[in-house]
Specification:
The chain is an alpha/beta fold and about 350 residues long. The chain is built from 15 helices and 13 strands. The strands form 3 sheets. Strands 3-11-10-8-7-6-5-4 form an 8-stranded parallel sheet. A 3-stranded antiparallel sheet has the order 9-13-12, with no helix packed on it. A two-stranded antiparallel sheet has the order 1-2. About 55% of the residues are buried.
């Protein structure tokens, strides 16, 4: 393939255009905030800020998580756009499972987020929360069934459709839309066919609403070969998260980044998250401890809509904050299936060039 043919086409989402069809996946708590998202946007991609407990280091967070998170959403979107310097797009990832989901969406729209990507549950009310604003919206789905359900509901309730769709496969990091049984034998899943089916099912809504609905494939996308593979399936772009952790611009601590660089395949484990979904994480002392006893919760950080501190195995907010700040043995480190292939620190600029040219 000659160099001209290797250049990836821009990603068009309505009237918005990203020069490079790469979305940097949202990673919370605090792993992808303005430094990383702004750097990705500056390279012509779409930088995504995770709003999950985004204000963890704001003054007063221990007493007022909701207020600090709203302040931080506004601050980090503004800062990311300043870093981007008018290039690329800046958006947010907002988990449906959050207790203050509605407020996060409204704050992101008010702050001028270009896109909102929403998963960890079905974002049935997202169109209502965004309203007539220019912010583009996308559900994260892992199956044709989920895609059909959301598209049908949005069309019926709100007479609108998704601006794009993120299809997240079984090799993704963090919370996963698959059962533990499915994740134990990923090779049995014909996920290429699932991607094709989702691409096919959105065509009815493209026709109904007279607009293209780009499909972005996520989960296990590591290099240019993976990008070209999903593009051949019909994808319009990709979402990549884990590879952006080992960059100088990533918002996580150096210790967190080194945990990725030093990870081996044997360190990757499927765990149960208090969110109620399986998750992929690095096995460490924290994970080992959970195998023998739950970690009693002494303080609730009001993060999840459905969470009983008396019964869940651990506080996910506390575990994620510990990790992102550098206490990597006693915190929760989410990761993708291919984390063991990351061997060195790089920059967003060099990584984007590697992926795109």
């Amino acid at each position: 393939m000659n160099k001209d043919n290797r250049v990836l086409k821009p990603l068009k989402i309505g009237e918005l255009v990203a020069e490079k069809p790469i979305i940097q996946g949202g990673m919370g708590v605090g792993v992808s905030r303005s430094s990383l998202a702004g750097a990705v946007a500056a390279e012509g991609g779409i930088g995504i800020i995770s709003t999950a407990q985004i204000g963890y280091d704001e003054e007063g967070f221990e007493k007022d998580q909701a207020g600090c998170n709203r302040i931080a959403i506004k601050k980090h979107i503004k800062r990311a756009k300043e870093i981007a310097g008018g290039k690329g797009l800046v958006g947010v990832n907002i988990m449906v499972a959050l207790k203050h989901y509605k407020e996060h969406v409204q704050e992101a729209v008010k702050a001028g987020a270009d896109v909102i990507i929403s998963g960890a549950g079905l974002p049935m009310d997202l169109p209502k929360l965004v309203g007539e604003n220019v912010t583009k919206i996308a559900p994260i789905v892992s199956s044709k069934r989920a895609a059909q359900l959301i598209l049908k509901m949005w069309a019926h309730r709100y007479n609108r459709t998704a601006d794009f769709i993120v299809v997240e496969g079984p090799k993704a990091g963090g919370h996963l839309g698959f059962s533990k049984e499915q994740l134990q034998d990923i090779d049995k899943l014909d996920y290429d066919q699932e991607i094709r089916d989702i691409i096919e099912c959105k065509k009815d809504y493209e026709e109904k609403f007279q607009r293209k609905i780009p499909v972005i494939v996520a989960g296990g996308i590591f290099d240019r070969k993976d990008i070209e593979h999903v593009m051949k399936l019909g994808a319009d772009g990709v979402q990549i998260a884990s590879r952006f952790v080992a960059t100088e611009e990533c918002d996580a601590s150096d210790a967190y980044k080194q945990a990725y660089i030093q990870a081996e395949k044997k360190n990757i484990q499927i765990i149960q998250s208090p969110v109620g979904m399986p998750g992929r994480a690095l096995r460490n002392e924290f994970i080992k401890g959970l195998e023998t006893a739950r970690k009693p919760i002494t303080k609730c950080y009001n993060c999840l809509e459905k969470c009983d501190p008396r019964t869940v195995p651990y506080c996910i907010t506390k575990a994620l904050i510990e990790a992102v700040q550098g206490n990597v043995e006693n915190g929760l480190i989410f990761c993708g299936e291919n984390v063991d292939r990351i061997h060195e620190m790089t920059t967003v600029h060099d990584l984007m060039n590697e992926l795109c040219y």
